[in-house]
């Protein structure tokens, strides 16, 4: 046993070291058509509106990346349900899957009843992990940037620019797909606000309905090929990423990363140990703390709890190797660890899991 081995399994070091795990990518189910799977989120609170608007509700289609927004004065369950019914379901049909975070505006009886009536499956991300709903988070950021450029620090009527900013996002070509969300969804080139909108209508009328339908079908096939090619590239990229093979099973002991919103300077960054009680799939684990409270945590926020040393027994063993004279490792450990018995609380004793 050497210094490196002792420090690698030191309780204090483990709880404070920077533990970085490469994100594990999980393949999503095959998207059959637009608005098969959507993600919803809220932006805000945004202050300054003279009309009392504070939030932006956002819904993004995973197939086309097409985004729907609505400025609202609150994010109550009724407001979210009305947004889903009026702006999403009645215009694009009920999606098969709705993905959201664990906000109370989404996890409530009203929204759950809407999903139950329309046979919509709910998909909820792990707590304090917005990357699980990354597509919507990305749309939020881009739309907010466009609104900021339009209002130029004038927040009095920012809600009036939300539709324009959303339209600008939807007609912007995406680097990976080479087409805009508008083109993928509607199978036609978007008309810019400052262009002659009548020219396309005259062109469609002169070509005749049959010719226009043939061109539309050809364009749709092209869009399907683009989306399929992009998905294949994503799958190839997922195969190339070597995710960690250190997965956990039921009854494994782990440490849980403390969310940044709950961290303070000079405090431990890992809490535990916790016991894995259920493997949820797709990187999610349900863990229970020492008091029996359970929660679902993403894999990237977990690390395996090492078998901690019993300090006194180990030091006495090291000292006995050289006729009672402490070795270099023992001296380092005496300096590294707090030998005061009064500083060891009941919870710290519990954390020394096994010898």
Automatic annotation (TrEMBL):
Pfam families cross-referenced by the UniProt entry: rve
InterPro entries membership: Integrase_cat-core, Retrovirus_Pol_polyprotein, RNaseH-like_sf, RNaseH_sf
Matches recorded under PROSITE patterns: INTEGRASE
Single biological process term from Gene Ontology: DNA integration
GO molecular function, a single term: nucleic acid binding
Annotated GO CC locations: nucleus
Gene3D superfamilies tied to this protein: Ribonuclease H-like superfamily/Ribonuclease H
SUPFAM superfamilies found in the cross-reference section: Ribonuclease H-like (SSF53098)
Integrase catalytic domain span: 30-189
Full protein name: POL4
